[in-house]
Amino acid sequence: MEWWVILIIAVAAVVIIALAVFLAVRSRKGGSGKVKIVDGERYTDGKSAYTADGNVSISHEEGDIVLAVGVPQRAVKGGRLMPGKYTVLSSAEGVKEFNLRVGGYVRSFRHGDDIVLADGEEICAVSHTVILR
Fold first, then answer.
1. Distances in Å between the alpha carbon of 131 and those of 52, 77, 78, 98?
2. What pTM was estimated for this model as a whole?
3. Of 20, 26, 39, 115, which is most buried with the most CB atoms under 10 A?
4. List of residues 6+ apart from 74 with CB closer than 8 A
């Protein structure tokens, strides 16, 4: 066999192995990589806030929105906080229940609950800092 044929086969094998490793790492990562943005609105599969053992993750990931106490934010298409489905997470370890003002009304939420924000709807953390994932 010619030396260049062996070289081409070796390079192709290295590329295929590197691609397989990249895809395996990416599929295990989870997190906000499972969020789709369609027409300026956010859609998630609902599993992105959970660890492999089924517990709710409280680590900060890219794409998370932090709601500070007393600082309202409005869901706007194409904005930082987009309309769509979010999982609400307590940013403080040990705090499992907290209050949010959504659309003018204060409601109690638990760590891991889901919330859907409409376009133009305002949300504000009332009792504790909260992460929207």
1. 20, 19, 19, 11
2. 0.58
3. 115
4. 81, 120, 121, 122, 123
